[in-house]
Amino acid sequence: MTFLTEPLHRHHKYCDDLFAKTEVVVADRDWVRGPVLFDDFHVEIEKHFRTEEVTLFPAFEAVIGMTSGPTQMMRLEHAQMRSLLEKMRSSLDGQESSAFAGAAETLLILMQQHNMKEENILYPMCDRSLTLHAEELGPVVRQHLNAPPGGNLSDVPKRTLVNGRDLQPPEPLEKSKRPALPRRQAMVEGVM
Ligand SMILES: [Fe+2]
What we know:
Layout: H1 6-27, H2 33-64, H3 70-93, H4 97-129, H5 134-145, E1 161-162, E2 165-166
Antiparallel strand pairs: 1-2
């Protein structure tokens, strides 16, 4: 059986590898390859964050009828990591390898803790709660993550439409009144 979050597990490892390569090259003060590798990593991790924020989390929140809790915490951690990514970008622009290394070390710790919480707690919760929707959401998740590498940040979709509607978390409802997520004919559209 393939779980909905399986591509996200694999993509965590892919991002980890890109991050490790970037760190090595910048530590060597290679100001040509360093920014290129960093951009690849930055695009991939942003792709990952947005796949969760525009597809997985809203679907999970719609099913459980709650927007606070683990998904809110994960969004906050994404914001913290985005701010570190900006620091890394500006230290690369200024060719400041020690500033880059400092931000990178903090990001590595945050990223490891964040990924562990997702892989051990949140993803299994999503897999259990979204079993009935895995068939329609799986292709959306894979499409977001498999977008060709080497693009830039503006290519990363900021929201997902399913059947022409945003996947927005609803107001919490009693279980009996919760709407079913739209089924089939998933239409995915990346919008700036
Ligand atoms: Fe995440």
